[in-house]
Amino acid sequence: MKAVCADFESAPISEKEKALLRYVAVVNDSPAKTSAEDVAAAKAAGWSDHALFDALTVCAIFNFFNRWLDGAGLPDVPAGFYDDRLAEHGDMGYQM
How many structural domains comprise the chain? Predict the structure, then answer.
């Protein structure tokens, strides 16, 4: 996970996963510049319309909530919150 967050292009993940992260990076960093070519590249790597819709939705929701929380001046969760939650509840069965 740390390698993906640091630089997904050099991280030890599949080319298919990198293609999805490239798509999400465009959606996240410059949404107005997201193009049919961005979608086509992710689809060419093997991602379905449904998977891309899900990735787009998750990206959009995270952006919405982060901006909403920041704009409202609410504090971030305490350090270690997510590690504690993972230890308590597991990964909830998420899979690639």
Answer: 1
Exposure string of 15-38, with b = 16+ CB inside 10 Å and e = fewer, is eebbbbbbbbebbeeeeeeeeeeb
The rounded distance, in Å, linking the Cα atoms of 96 and 62 is 19
In a domain, 9, yes or no: no
Does residue 9 contact residue 20 with C-beta atoms inside 8 Å? no
Q: State the Cα–Cα distance between residues 73 and 94, nearest whole angstrom.
A: 31
- Which parts of the chain register pLDDT below 50? 96
* pLDDT tens-digit readout, 60-83: 999 999 999 999 999 888 888 888
pLDDT of residue 3: 86
Give a yes or no: residue 48 inside a domain.
Answer: yes
Using an 8 Å Cβ cutoff, are 62 and 31 in contact?
no
Mean pLDDT value across the chain: 90
Which DSSP symbol is given to 45? T
